[in-house]
């Protein structure tokens, strides 16, 4: 049975998609069978892993998988041991579908049950096929995010060292608590990853320290700094990327810490 990990924070541009892609890649390289699920209508994880425009997955995405409560037809292989359940802009119609029972194509499909549990139920069909499922979320506490949280055992909270991200953390932690109470997977925060750190900025250093004081047991020791090869992963991807090693080196340390926590639980 797969272990499911969601990357999240309701603040934009904190490294959620990058971290989801890298974690999926590192797990797959380590020999684990991995499914990466894109729950963000921006489709950034989809483009990072598939190297195709997310529009290529219109009517072939996680949205249709959830409407049919079966992802099998929509999963695409993107690497050795690595599969993707893609997303595109139409995922933005997910809430409208949930609350009207009408899909963006005009089909009448009603989900009977808690609307936050649709992804959890959908993934049920494939959990035994994978060792890990990693999920990317949008920068909001939307239905996509609550579905991802309720479908996950673990959550990695992304913290980009800024004031507005700092103020997003408590509400996000409350949402994880809500998923633990209402969902079936005993959802827990696995850790807080400090990302996109600008080593030249004293305020970033201060926020790093504040978050470690507030959440001493949650913060990962590894801090991911801003580094051009990490940013350029969105351009070059993982295959035949001459600077892949530089893009991944800090994330290798995060990966070790994460696996120690997963195995220790
Ligand atoms: N450590 C890093 N150093 C440099 N650039 C980075 C780093 N991590 C991510 N980036 C770049 O910063 C931007 C934001 O990262 P990413 O898209 O992963 O964040 P996100 O939290 O998923 O954003 P959104 O909230 O919009 O979904 C992207 O252009 C990405 O390529
Ligand atoms: Mg993203």
UniProtKB/TrEMBL annotation:
Transmembrane segments: none annotated. Residues 4-184 form the AAA domain. It holds the Pfam family AAA_31. This is Chromosome partitioning protein.
